[in-house]
Design a protein that fits this description.
single chain; mainly alpha; elongated; Helix Hairpins; 82% helix
Length: 67
């Protein structure tokens, strides 16, 4: 998901996305450990999506303190 699209979401929606991505990352790591992972590139995508969502949340937090 693009950061621009994430910026349009509310904080609650972003926090839910982060939780969902973390759950997916856990499942992907489990599949990797058991040798059942079909698309190893998905690991990187999910990690980057978590980082994007957290970045948007942090930017909003910083802007809130300055406003």
């Amino acid at each position: 998901m693009k950061a621009k699209k994430m910026a349009e979401m509310t904080n609650e929606e972003l926090q839910k996305k982060v939780r969902d991505y973390k759950d997916e990352l856990f499942n992907l790591r489990f599949q990797l450990a058991t040798g059942q992972l079909d698309n190893p590139m998905r690991l990187g995508e999910v990690r980057k999506n978590i980082a994007r969502a957290k970045t948007v949340l942090r930017q909003r937090e910083i802007q809130g303190h300055r406003a």
